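Below is a filled-in request sheet from our internal design queue. Each sheet records the structural input a requester submitted and the sequence that came back. We keep these sheets so that new team members can see what a complete request looks like end to end.

REQUESTER: design group, bay 2
PRIORITY: normal
MODE: inverse folding
CHAIN LENGTH: 411
BACKBONE (tokenized):
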């Protein structure tokens, strides 16, 4: 495949959901490394602190032409000034969450090209963080957003599933049962950590399995019960990493397939079912982080990163399937899930400022963990297990820490 074959159609979808296809010319992008340089008077060389990088920036010169060029250009200009995060389908650099940044200019070439408008805009890549403001209880706002997603997802599932023919219903039932069993296996270990969660998880699974013949003809109820099943393990008092990994593994199994249109409605139904499970697993991840007591700033921020990455993976996979099947996403459930992810990530960032911050030291001599914990934390009781866990100490290190060992502690 030559480079020309890898160039895609250029398009932008604003928060309102209308997709605009446009012409373009030469393209570019840029990114800035976030670094600080420190020079010390008694040492040669420079210490460069690497703090990662900014989002990438995508300047574009956009063209509209033809009999309706002015109407199309005006609608696109209005889309660019909508508030919120849009999706840029860059012809070279792929799918990116963006916000149009800075000045947006438009030129109508009435003399040199009477039916052409040229707009210049710079899209900035953005992370999906919307800091909740004015919320007396940000966690409740996140839970409410998940509930709104659940309703939107179930309604969308009912509206898009095609099960009129007997063969379609049989294929749909078979695929759904397979995913249901896979979800039970993948989430069972997390649910089993807490008795009441385990009982509810098994009861919902048994209810769906026993009534699957009836529920196949009632996709709305089936979808609602499935969201309850998949999100119940998020409430278990399991380690947050175990919960996140369980949902990540489930999503990984679901998003490995891009459906082809060769089987018609059966292919479309299979994707819609995969999407129900995958998107609901993202919502389960959201409930997991909201129902967790984080101890350290790094744990909260790592959870926010994991949530954003999982959502991005599901979004990219959904886009590939919609393109492969030649279908258009109505966007209702996606927008609700985006809102929930954004609120959850913002919640995690917000609470991170109140949590313990990580510090690192390198031991200049052999130390015992008792005296080191007392020195770093001012007490031993209640801190020893946390110290051992956060540093991954095993074997001889629990008896004595060697000189040169890097130690992590939190303040």
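RETURNED SEQUENCE:
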């Amino acid at each position: 495949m030559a480079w020309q074959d890898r160039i895609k159609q250029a398009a932008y979808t604003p928060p309102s959901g209308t997709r605009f296809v446009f012409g373009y010319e030469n393209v570019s992008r840029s990114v800035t490394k976030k670094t600080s340089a420190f020079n010390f008077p008694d040492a040669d060389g420079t210490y460069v602190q690497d703090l990662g990088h900014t989002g990438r920036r995508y300047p574009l010169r956009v063209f509209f032409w033809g009999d309706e060029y002015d109407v199309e250009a005006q609608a696109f200009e209005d889309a660019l000034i909508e508030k919120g995060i849009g999706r840029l389908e860059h012809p070279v650099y792929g799918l990116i969450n963006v916000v149009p940044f800075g000045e947006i200019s438009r030129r109508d070439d009435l003399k040199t090209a009477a039916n052409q408008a040229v707009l210049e805009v710079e899209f900035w890549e953005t992370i999906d963080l919307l800091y909740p403001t004015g919320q007396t209880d940000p966690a409740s706002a996140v839970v409410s957003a998940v509930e709104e997603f659940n309703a939107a997802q179930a309604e969308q599932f009912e509206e898009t599933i095609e099960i009129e023919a007997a063969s379609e219903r049989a294929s749909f039932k078979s695929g759904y049962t397979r995913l249901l069993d896979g979800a039970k296996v993948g989430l069972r270990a997390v649910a089993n950590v807490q008795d009441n969660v385990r009982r509810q998880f098994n009861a919902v699974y048994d209810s769906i399995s026993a009534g699957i013949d009836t529920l196949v003809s009632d996709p709305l109820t089936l979808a609602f019960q499935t969201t309850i099943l998949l999100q119940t393990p998020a409430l278990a008092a399991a380690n947050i990493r175990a919960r996140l990994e369980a949902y990540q593994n489930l999503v990984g199994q679901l998003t490995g397939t891009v459906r082809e249109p060769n089987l018609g409605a059966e292919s479309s139904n299979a994707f819609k079912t995969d999407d129900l499970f995958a998107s609901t697993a993202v919502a389960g991840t959201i409930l997991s982080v909201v129902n967790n007591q984080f101890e350290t700033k790094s744990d909260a921020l790592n959870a926010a990163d994991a949530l954003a990455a999982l959502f991005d993976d599901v979004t990219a996979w959904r886009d590939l399937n919609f393109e492969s099947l030649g279908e258009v996403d109505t966007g209702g459930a996606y927008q609700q899930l985006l809102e929930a992810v954004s609120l959850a990530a913002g919640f995690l960032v917000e609470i991170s400022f109140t949590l313990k911050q990580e510090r690192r030291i390198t031991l200049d001599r052999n130390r015992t963990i008792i005296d080191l914990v007392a020195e770093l934390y001012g007490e031993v009781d209640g801190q020893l297990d946390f110290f051992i866990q956060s540093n991954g100490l095993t074997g001889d290190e629990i008896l004595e820490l060697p000189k040169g060992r890097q130690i992590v502690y939190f303040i």
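SHEET NOTES:
- The mean pLDDT is 87.
- The longest strand covers residues 94-108.
FILED BY: M.R.
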